Amino acid sequence: MLHLSLHPEVMLAFFQGTQLNLFERFLTQALSGIDSTGITSGMQNVAYVVLLVGFLWQVYQSAMHGGDVRGLGTGLIKYVVTAVVIMNYGTVFSTINQGFVNAGNWVSNASGAGSLFENWKSDLQTQFSQAGFQQMWG
Q1: Residue 16 has what DSSP assignment?
Q2: Is the pTM of this model over 0.85?
Q3: Of 2, 51, 125, 128, which is the most buried if we count CB atoms within 10 A?
Q4: Contacts of 86 (CB under 8 A, 6+ apart)
Q5: Best CA proximity match to 79, nearest among 98, 97, 53
Q6: Is the pLDDT of residue 10 over 50?
Q7: How many CB atoms lie within 10 A of CB 104?
């Protein structure tokens, strides 16, 4: 069994600006490489077939449950929303990717200049210099 031990500093490095830009560039290049092969359109066609089969199964289940129109309506909404997401896969993927990059940049900038751990260390040093041992042992 593989056991990985990651330090908090390593995990925080993912949220720093340069790493985020590198990660964003990697995902953008991967998406353009995948799209250039034409496999995305083939996978979308397979997804549409799976959605159609799933919807037909939902129609069958609704008919067998005494004409369950509510179940058929909710199934129809689920399948239509999923089909729209599959239809706009590139845009959805790019938007979600950009959202994660923006969140990471916000976390990185929220700590001010420098590393989050450096700021935390300086805050602890300031607190300790003001209160000293009285607060620790009080």
Answers
A1: S
A2: no
A3: 51
A4: 44, 47, 48, 51
A5: 53
A6: no
A7: 19
